[in-house]
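[job 0412] stage=fold_complex status=start
inputs:
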Amino acid sequence: MDRIRRLYDELYTKYGPQGWWPVSGRYHPDDYSYPKTKKQRFEICIGAILTQNTNWPNVEKALINLQKNKLFDAKKILDADEDLLKACIRSAGYYNQKAKKLGIFSQFFIAQNKKIPLRDQLLALWGIGPETADSILLYAYMQPEFVVDAYTKRILLKRKLINENATYDEIKKLFEKNLPKKFELYQEFHALIVEEGKH
DNA sequence: TTCCAGGCAATAC
DNA sequence: GTATTGCATGGA
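[job 0412] stage=fold_complex status=done
writing structure:
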């Protein structure tokens, strides 16, 4: 069952290294040492929340607004005027819900200090589901947690590697069982899947 | 104009 | 327990 490995090779050959997660609007193919600072880690986390069911260009606009208003910081998000925060993230859609999610996550982020969160801790937060939790762990904390999204399911379905009613955790485990447990590989693979999905 | 994008929680059945 | 619905913007 190394069709998973072959899928990775195929996509990598087709698209090359993707360099996810973008930090300050920049991708960093072949440099897996991100995030380099706590601020960058926080940026990845809020990007993961903002991108829920939304395309990335809309999220980038929101991130730029947050940056301009000096809100790239958990404490500042908590202290920020609610309307200003909502105005900043408006382009990412669902701004009422997402403003609340950013607040809840910011509180958690501060309480965690530098500790790597457990997956269950993230899932217990309002507004963090499995994909966002795994994205945060994989890209912000460099933990080998495979991220499954709508594209992943679609692509595996088309290749008949899963059936229609496969759950999030089943798909996640399919990847994790068939790949070396390396965060760099997981990061690239998920990014390649999204790239393929967009085509 | 309609459709959908790197989901999630609340509600309905 | 599974299925459906609300949340919202911007670009194709």
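[job 0412] summary: Residues 53-55, 57-58, 61, 90-98 of chain A lie near DNA strand C (CB under 10 Å from a C1').
[job 0412] exit 0
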